[in-house]
Design brief:
Chain lengths: 164, 483, 368
């Protein structure tokens, strides 16, 4: 197999230029493919890394307000999750009738948080971080920063959550 | 809890299995791929009348015989030893289902070992044609061992609905073939066959690097060029087969990969995605490295490079096997048995209820044989969380009960102070926080991130209290006053 | 080769571009030079790749380091900015882990490079300056490591820096002064980060690039040394391969392997960030500096407990100073194979150093 291969290669370079071109093309294409693969595998993370603030800003600018489906029917002392654009968010109807809404991505490692009515707090199950259910300030566990708070406007038939 | 727990300090039982298994896979896949490689090489040498190849092949087959017949066989038995200790319930299930499969496996295994020895010792002593036939017989037998073990390995990830329908009724053997030729059987067989062929090439490169280039330049050049081609089928076809394989994996298990890919940007993505990435990256690079270091100028190819290529092969194979194992979380057998050995479906016609439910009501430790009735009687009452400085028998009993819970349900994956160590995971959490986690594991919510990779915690409230007390004491050991 | 400038011949854009560059940069000469460069081929030639591997890891350090600079903030917000890189910025974990892991791999490759060079006796005439610049580069690399380790300002970094500074602080007479200057105050705080940062991203890179240029120039000028056993062989049996493309292509393959190893470590063991450093908190158990400082750290620790007070520190410093000086002047002691006693001393001293450093490091980890 190898002998035949070598012979072919020698003959090709000596007398048959077309075959040589084909072989060169194959090698060239393989090298190109490898190069493109590695460039992509290294370039893409670097692009994302440098682009993060831009992407985050665009994401933030895209949606300014949403009306969570079924938000108005939420009884007092209950919370529900909804999507604010591409990010999960949590809407809370406090027992005293007031409303709050927060970004639901834990500021520690990015798990989704949830409202716990019995303890009146927002809780992240991943590392047991807790936040104040009215201000979003971290109260215990590892979270370093407060959750982003949204502005809530209650109308007759819907609840409008917007960027404050 | 019918079996003792295997307590491996620091590294944990899982890593012991992983170390043995990766070592074994590197060799056993070579045994299968090399089974094809040897007769192919011999046929090539005979056909083209290469005397130098025919002189070199016996040396090569000696290396092959020793590596596969000794290290491969011993490490294969080592896997069964270690999994039997680490997950006795799971191993017992496999044996009960596939005892017939294993019987066949052992037949082929004996044929394999015998023909490998005959093949080596009859070089130049029997007619060439007959010798080549022995080689083909070896190839067939060794491939058959892969055909069989592949059924048992893939069963754990995708047992198939047909088998799950009868699981726990005692009728399981009637679905033997459905369980054996399960959804991932064929893609996995294709992937493993390709990997066998590629590893045969890698090992032949290792041996080829030892050929003295000054004495046999032609032999070295041809051998290395010829073996390089063995890496090509895997390189071309493996991506397709991987795609096919992933297609057949149930959605609930794929969640782990998808979660990993969607969160890959931020540092929280799953281990299975990471190992899969490593495996893809290393496999994609091997051929390039072989081309640059070996194929271009075979006479300059030295052992150091060959070992580096072998290392890449270990990285690719090891991480592929690891991602396959991680993909099964939180099960030993998907949808049937959790990684803590608790069965999800009924354990027999006598007891139609779920095992998990029975443990939760009657107690995980109710039937344990690792505590005397006297000890058990202490568990029903007394303080559930004793202060660490007191040494009352009741407290010791609680801690002992907690330790039994730990051994039964945590030790299969976690260690006390090493790999996935409890001290590291829990030391920043107070007793209440530990209790929160245990409660969450006991009553897993659909959206809990732990549900995807940790089994439900089985046991009564008192048992979970005891586990909590034990873990709290483990995470915050009482400090000696002199310190 | 194609130095023709006759415009009559229709030429492809490629050869025109080549000519344009070649006439101005002298590329053909360089190519010609690299064609003649030969690398000896023998049983130990695998070790020749280690210098290239170290260089590769350095290149990764430069690339990932520049990327980290995009988001890192020295001073009081250091911890928060590293936390953001690790957990918030897309692929920040990857860049940071690659930086940390390749730093460790670079030190490892450099140590292997140094010891293999010593055992091959590649420090002998005329390569003494290669040896000295190499030692300088190793020193700079370790300073890189030490200064970079503090920058995240998590608990581990804080205490590792604190205990690591015990080494310069134990220098007789000027030790405390030196440690104070390094810290920028009596304690490790935001001032320390600021000056470590300056060191890490400005001072050391400039020095390193200068040293590296000299080192590579010397390697190019004198070529690869062959071990004495190989040198003793008659010329006719010695073999060489072309640097370009044969050796270079293998270098490339080695870099691919190194990149894969790095990818493996980064993906399977991404670098974590501990809790924020709290100067008032008690040091966690078993605090120790990075592994490549373990040997001096352990020696000081052991001698400090055997000998009373400053005497122990003095003894430790003395051992390292004398050992380091002998290590540095090794090329002057062991000059050629004509002096068998000196040659034997060189060999034994190298093995002794390897055993001493490896032993102390292992002891240090066992004693944690």
């Amino acid at each position: 197999m190898s002998d035949a291969h070598d012979e072919r290669g020698e003959r090709a370079s000596a007398a048959e230029p077309p075959a040589s071109v084909t072989r060169r093309t194959v090698v060239g294409a393989t090298v190109g493919l490898f190069g493109a693969g590695y460039t992509g595998a290294i370039g893409y993370p670097i692009y994302c890394y440098l682009n993060t603030p831009v992407a985050r800003a665009e994401e933030a600018a895209k949606v300014t307000q949403v009306s969570p489906a079924g938000g108005r029917q939420l009884p007092p002392g209950a919370g529900m999750g909804f999507m604010f654009g591409t990010r999960p968010a949590v809407l809370i109807h406090h027992p005293d009738g007031t409303w709050s809404a927060f970004d639901a991505i834990c500021t520690h490692l990015g798990c989704t948080v949830k409202y716990e009515p019995d303890k009146d707090r927002i809780f992240c199950a991943c590392h047991l971080g807790t936040y104040n259910a009215r201000t979003g300030e971290p109260t215990s566990g590892p979270p370093p920063r407060a959750l982003t708070q949204y502005h809530v406007e209650v109308k007759d038939d819907e609840v409008i959550v917007s960027r404050s | 809890m019918n079996y003792p727990a295997w307590d491996v300090p620091v590294i944990g039982s899982g890593l012991v299995i992983a170390a043995i298994a990766i070592f074994h896979v590197m060799i056993s896949h070579f045994a299968v791929g090399g089974g094809l490689f040897l007769p192919m090489a011999e046929r090539y040498a005979l056909k083209s009348g290469r005397r130098d190849w025919l002189e070199f092949l016996p040396r090569y087959s000696k290396f092959f015989l020793i590596l596969t017949g000794v290290f491969g066989a011993v490490s294969g038995v080592g896997i069964w030893f270690s999994i039997g200790l680490a997950s006795p319930e799971g191993t017992s299930s496999l044996i009960h289902n596939f005892v017939f499969g294993w019987a066949i496996e052992w037949v082929f295994f004996l044929v394999e070992l015998t023909t490998a020895a005959v093949y080596y010792y009859t070089w130049g002593r029997i007619p060439d044609k007959l010798h080549l036939q022995v080689g083909w017989l070896y190839a067939g037998a060794s491939f058959a061992t892969l055909v069989i073990i592949n059924g048992i390995l893939t069963f754990m990830l995708t047992p198939g609905q047909s088998w799950l329908d009868v699981a726990g009724t005692g009728e399981e053997p009637t679905r033997f073939f459905a369980a054996f030729f399960n959804p991932t059987y064929f893609p996995s067989l294709a992937l493993r066959t390709l990997s066998c062929i590629a590893l045969a090439g890698v090992w032949a490169l290792v041996v080829g690097s030892r050929i003295d280039a000054q004495q046999h330049p032609q032999l070295k050049t041809d051998w290395i060029r010829w073996t390089t081609w063995w890496l090509v089928p895997g390189f071309v076809l493996m991506p397709l087969c991987l795609f096919w394989y992933i297609k057949m994996v149930p959605g609930s298990q794929l969640e782990l990969i998808q979660l990993g890919i969607s969160t890959i940007g931020t540092g929280t993505f799953t281990q299975v995605t990471r190992t899969l990435l490593v495996s893809v990256m290393a496999s994609a690079t091997i051929l390039a490295v072989v081309y640059l270091a070996a194929y271009r100028k075979p006479v300059d190819f030295q052992i150091g490079y060959a070992l580096a290529i072998l290392l890449l092969g270990v990285a690719a194979t090891g991480s592929a096997e690891m991602s396959r194992e991680l993909l099964r979380k939180p099960y030993v057998v998907v949808d049937y048995m959790y990684s803590n050995g608790v069965r999800q479906v009924a354990t027999g016609t006598q007891e139609p209820r779920q095992e998990l439910e029975r443990f939760n009501t009657a107690g995980y430790l109710a039937d344990t044989i690792w505590a005397t009735p006297d000890e058990k009687s202490l568990w029903t009452e007394g303080p559930r969380t004793a202060p660490p400085d007191s040494a009352s028998p009741a407290e010791n009993a609680v801690l002992a009960q907690g330790e039994l819970m730990f051994r039964g349900q945590c030790l299969a994956c976690h260690t006390r102070d090493g790999y996935r160590g409890m001290q590291r995971l829990l030391h920043e959490r107070n007793e209440q926080a530990i209790r929160n986690i245990l409660t969450m594991l006991h009553t897993p919510q659909e959206d809990s991130p732990y549900r995807a990779f940790m089994p439900p915690l089985a046991g009564t409230g008192l048992e979970i209290d005891a586990l909590c007390a034990y873990l709290d004491q483990l995470a915050h050991p009482p400090v000696a006053p002199a310190d | 080769m194609t130095r023709s400038s006759s415009p009559a011949v229709e030429r492809s854009w490629r050869s025109r571009l080549w000519d344009f560059c070649d006439e101005r940069l002298g590329l053909a000469e360089l190519l010609e030079l690299s064609r003649h460069k030969m690398v000896p081929q023998h049983a130990h030639s695998f070790w020749y790749y280690l210098g290239g591997i170290s260089l590769f890891f350095f290149a990764i350090q430069v690339l990932t380091g520049m990327l980290l600079l995009v988001y890192f903030q020295p001073g009081p917000s250091a911890y928060e900015s590293v936390r953001r890189i690790t957990y918030d910025i897309d692929f920040g974990w990857l860049i940071r882990s690659a930086h940390s892991w390749s730093a460790n791999l670079m030190v490892l490759a450099l140590l292997a490079h140094m010891f293999s060079v010593a055992l091959m006796k590649a420090y002998r005439k005329p390569r003494e300056f290669g040896w000295w610049t190499g030692l300088g580069l190793l020193g700079l690399t370790m300073t890189f490591g030490f200064s970079g380790y503090l920058l995240p300002m998590d608990e581990l970094a804080f205490f590792a820096t604190k205990v690591g500074l015990e080494i310069p602080a134990s220098v007789p007479l000027v030790g405390p002064l030196l440690a104070g200057l390094i810290r920028g105050g009596p304690n490790v705080d935001a001032n320390t980060i600021q000056r470590f940062f300056t060191l890490h991203v400005v001072v050391l890179p400039v020095l390193f690039v200068l040293g590296l240029t000299l080192h590579l120039y010397l390697v190019q000028r004198h070529g690869n040394a062959v071990p004495p056993g190989e040198e003793a062989k008659p010329d006719s049996t010695r073999r060489y391969i072309k640097f370009f493309p044969d050796f270079f292509v293998k270098d490339l393959a080695m870099w691919l392997i190194a990149l894969n190893l790095l990818g493996l470590l980064v993906c399977l063991f991404p670098w974590q960030l501990g809790t924020q450093a709290d100067p008032a908190a008690a040091a966690p158990d078993g605090v120790h500096p990075e592994w490549y400082f373990m040997a001096p750290f352990q020696l000081l620790k052991v001698l400090g407990s055997w000998l009373p007070g400053a005497v122990g520190e003095l003894a430790g410093m003395l051992i390292f100073a004398v050992g380091g000086i002998v290590w540095g002047i090794l090329p002057l002691i062991d000059r050629s194979s004509d002096h068998p006693r000196a040659a034997r001393f060189g060999t034994w001293f190298t093995w002794g150093t390897i055993a001493f450093v490896a032993g102390l490091t292992a002891w240090g980890y066992l004693a944690l």
